[in-house]
Amino acid sequence: GVENDIQVHSHFCYSDFGDIFPSIQRLDADVISIEASKADLKLLDVFKAHGYSNEIGPGVYDIHSPRVPS
């Protein structure tokens, strides 16, 4: 029910993307952001293997880290 000129974003944290990938594709979000810092960006391999064609914003900073970036 969303018009084509509206961009839909979704965010996922700490998920087994291989298990939920079909559901992610059905969301048809224009952009998803995922927590990827703890997995050294290896989570992106799942999206590549499944041929995910929408945009992905990988998180590169662990929000649970006590280190505050400059």
UniProtKB/TrEMBL annotation:
<dbReference type="GO" id="GO:0003871">
    <property type="term" value="F:5-methyltetrahydropteroyltriglutamate-homocysteine S-methyltransferase activity"/>
</dbReference>
<dbReference type="GO" id="GO:0008270">
    <property type="term" value="F:zinc ion binding"/>
</dbReference>
<dbReference type="InterPro" id="IPR002629">
    <property type="entry name" value="Met_Synth_C/arc"/>
</dbReference>
<keyword id="KW-0862">Zinc</keyword>
<feature type="domain" description="Cobalamin-independent methionine synthase MetE C-terminal/archaeal">
    <location>
        <begin position="2"/>
        <end position="70"/>
    </location>
</feature>
<dbReference type="GO" id="GO:0009086">
    <property type="term" value="P:methionine biosynthetic process"/>
</dbReference>
<protein>
    <submittedName>
        <fullName>METE methyltransferase</fullName>
    </submittedName>
</protein>
<dbReference type="InterPro" id="IPR038071">
    <property type="entry name" value="UROD/MetE-like_sf"/>
</dbReference>
<dbReference type="Pfam" id="PF01717">
    <property type="entry name" value="Meth_synt_2"/>
</dbReference>
<keyword id="KW-0479">Metal-binding</keyword>
<dbReference type="GO" id="GO:0032259">
    <property type="term" value="P:methylation"/>
</dbReference>
<keyword id="KW-0808">Transferase</keyword>
<keyword id="KW-0489">Methyltransferase</keyword>
